[in-house]
Amino acid sequence: MPxxxxxxxxxxxxxxxxxxxxxxxxxxSIAQLVSHGTTLASVATTASTRFVSALQDLTAQINxxxxxxxxxxxxxxxxxxxxxxxxxxxxxxxx
Amino acid sequence: MVPYRFRSxxxxxxxxxxxxxxxxxxxxxxQALGLSSxxxxxxxxxxxxxxxYLAAAGTYAASQQAALxxxxxxxxxxxxxxxxxxxxxxAAPVMGSLAQAYAVYRHAKADLAAGTSSPxxxxxxTADLNKWLTDAGPLxxxxxxxxxx
Lengths: 95, 149
Hints:
- The complex is a heterodimer.
- In chain A, helix 1 runs antiparallel to helix 2.
- Chain A has helices spanning 2-18, 24-67, 75-94.
- In chain A, 85% of the residues lie in helices and 0% in strands.
- In chain B, 52% of the residues are buried.
- By secondary structure, chain B is mostly helical.
- Classes of the chains: A mainly alpha, B mainly alpha.
């Protein structure tokens, strides 16, 4: 998982920094590790933020259905969500 | 209004989904279980089979989009990408069966309302939908955990 990897990278960086006689090459290597970890954290945060936002929209949609007294989706509504899932599956498989 | 409301048979499956996804996302839990409420809690909001199907399929779709964000980023490690692909590949057939079961359930209810079906047929469709909701729970939670946390 990204966060575990990031923690691992940061831990590796901290261990390396605590070692005596750090060379410039080693410092550059550590900087690269931390930079990579920061990039990963940014991507993971973006994905997570969008994910929570999508869940909020979904919850609001369900609450609206409930308020309207609608228990079930229409044919078109189910077709839309099923098509979205299928399209994403194909995209993931070929990514 | 359909004369039969088959809410209670779904509650074990919905409760399971609720728990699994709540644990996976570490978001506040589910209203149905009295844990808490949150604006990002579709399983806590759903009160009928159709709404719970939307919660399941919608959460899965959101997880897929989060997975795609990670998959498209070149800095994401190959091991993470492989895990996401495997999680989606494992869930896809079950989500397909769940979609089919929900369509059958909807049509069985409509037929019953039209007087062209029986409560027994709706009960069978309900049990089938319940099974697929239960089966889908861990798979949705797994992809959510990998992609959304």
